[in-house]
Amino acid sequence: MFIRLYLRASTQEQDAARAKKELVAFAAEHGHKIASTYIENESGATLQRPELMRLINDASHGDVILVEQVDRLARLNDKDWQSLKHLLSKKRISIVSKELPTSWIALDQSNGNTDFTTSMIKAINTMMLDMLAVIARKDYEDRKRRQRQGIEKAQREGRYKGKPINIEKHTKIKSLLLKKVSYSEIVAALGCSRATVAKVAKANKHNELET
Question: pTM here?
């Protein structure tokens, strides 16, 4: 069994690696070392996350994904959450969250519990993970709604100017897109999100249609 640490933040302004030291210590408390670490700045609301997919591809049967909180792994809608769980279940990959004590059983293989107790804890943990995933998704949707309402209010009052575009980075993205570089390679090279790459690609395609 290998412990694979997954760290995620939504934007480049956030430090995805912030919790690494704390989680390494947490694993050590349970008698484990971190075998590999996967860090990315992508939205938890999408499955289009190269590092998460690389983790799953690298993992062997029975490995563990260690996260700080469940929302670091997923703020997915129900369909995508079920898809992610299916990918994990095919390799019997367990999710351990520092905030969810019932998940720690995956780290404590020699804890003396009976098969019945272990099965009960696993069942409870599955239920808790599903519940926390739903809460994480609702929190994401609530924040997006409040943000949208704030923008609409600012627009009505003539105060909204929008987020300034990083012209230099957009130019680099456009150049790489024209060279047929993949989204994942651009994200890795420039440290931007897939959403930004997609936005530039969409704008570039629109401009081509107008010329």
Answer: 0.67
State the residue range of the domain holding 131.
Answer: 3-137
Task: Count how many domains the chain has.
Answer: 2
Q: Give strand pairing partners of 3.
A: 34, 64
- Residue written as tokens 């069994």? 1
Q: H or E element: which one contains 106?
A: none
Distance CA 191, CA 177 (A): 15
Asked whether 93 and 57 are in contact (CB, 8 A), the reply is no
Q: Is 159 part of any domain? A: no
Instruction: Specify whether the CB–CB gap between 59 and 95 falls below 8 A.
Output: no
* Of 122, 110, 118, 109, residue with least CA distance to 63: 109
Per DSSP, helices labelled H in 30-162 are: 50-58, 70-73, 78-90, 115-156
CA distance 77 to 122: 23
Residue 149 in domain: no
156 located within any domain: no
pLDDT tens digits, residue range 72-125? 888 888 899 999 999 999 998 999 999 888 888 888 765 555 565 556 667 777
| 158 φψ region: left (φ > 0), alpha (ψ -120 to 50), beta (else) | left
